[in-house]
Amino acid sequence: MSATPPPPPPQQPYGGAAQQLSPADEKLWATLIQIGGILFSWIPALIGYLVLKDRGPFVRAHAATALNFQITIFIAYVVGGILSIVVIGIFIIIAAWVLDIVFSIIAAIKANQGEYYTYPIAIKFVS
């Protein structure tokens, strides 16, 4: 008598559907993505978008809007850096820095309250 081993348990295939986040976790990650833009420019928004975009509509919307805004601010920094040869570039860099801080804090507060936020000045690169 030969005993056959039991079949292996079913496994989740690679690339399976991502588990949805709870509303509290979505608010937390959306807030962290918005605040991360102040410190690290567009990097947290990009990572948040790539990793969390399929985990919930709220965090996806905030990650996409943060990424669009941070790329827009990065472009302003580059233009300001180029124009810093002329004095006007310094003012562009300072204005972009202030706008980045103010609007990112407003967006983080809205995300923490569970509300959607659209930046008033942002080029739409990612939807």
Total beta-strand segments: 0
- Helicity range: 55-70%
Residue fraction in strands? under 5%
N-to-C span: 62 Å
The structure class reads mainly alpha
Q: Low-confidence parts lasting 5 or more residues at pLDDT below 50?
A: none
Cα-atom Rg, whole angstroms? 21 Å
Main beta-sheet strand count, sense and barrel state: none
Return the average pLDDT rounded to an integer. 90
- Net shape: elongated
Taken in chain order, the helices and strands follow as HHHH
Number of helices: 4
How does this structure look, described?
By secondary structure, this protein is an all-alpha fold. It has 4 helices and no strands. Helix 1 (23-40) packs antiparallel against helix 4 (88-112) and helix 2 packs antiparallel against helix 3. It is elongated. The N and C termini lie far apart (62 Å).
